Amino acid sequence: MADPDDDLVRAVEATLFASDMPLTPAEIALHLGGAAVHDAIEQLAAHYAGRGVHLVERGGRWHFQTAPDLAHLLRREREEPRRLSRAAIEALAIIAYHEPVSRAEIEAIRGVQTARGTLDVLMEAGWVHIAGRRESPGRPTIYATTPAFLAHFGLASRRDLPGIDELRAAGLLDPVDSAYAALAGVMPGPESDE
């Protein structure tokens, strides 16, 4: 591994440190006159791996963050953010797992109408953005998650979202087979004693 004092590595480090938002490798390279920065980023990530701050990638963007085991030292007393409604949580999950998705598709999956304010709350939080319009009659607006969504939930990409087996193991989903078995156990079926 090259010494972290290498000029390019130091320039990448300074660029990331000074940035107020996570940066893609292309954005870092643009700041540095088009230099190839992938190796420098990897060297920095390795250098900071055991330190008080880590260089992490979230959604293809790099930034420094406090080491998870030290985060409690930096917590400040602050006003609790407004909690999301159940409708907003459901809409966010649908968008995350099915993006890009239109409002009508969100409503079809949820089985109820979604208030305009629900999507506005998610956009104000910076977790959802308008991704364009679907090429279909009426050209409905479609929604997708943002890099801020990935960063907030500690995901490198949407592929890191829990799968159905993980959700079921965590007790967040009732297995359909268990529900049918429980229903069958409650309701007497035709039996033969012969």
Number of strands: 5
Number of domains: 2
Tally of helical segments: 9
Predict the CATH topology of the largest domain: Arc Repressor Mutant, subunit A
Beta content comes to: 5-15%
* Low-pLDDT residue intervals, each spanning 5 or more residues: 186-194
Strand order of the largest sheet: 3-5-4
The shape, in one word, is globular
Rg is 23 Å
Overview of the structural elements:
By secondary structure, the protein is α+β, with helices and mostly antiparallel strands. The protein folds into two domains: 7-71, Arc Repressor Mutant, subunit A; 86-168, Arc Repressor Mutant, subunit A (Orthogonal Bundle). The protein is 43% helix and 13% strand. The protein has helices spanning 7-18, 25-31, 38-48, 86-98, 103-110, 116-124, 147-152, 164-169, 176-186; strands at residues 53-58, 61-66, 101-102, 128-133, 141-145. The protein has a three-stranded antiparallel sheet. A two-stranded antiparallel sheet has the order 1-2. A hairpin with a 2-residue loop joins strand 1 and strand 2. The longest helix is centred in the middle third of the chain and has 13 residues, at 86-98. It is globular and about 55 Å long. The termini are far apart. The model is unreliable at 186-194 (pLDDT under 50).
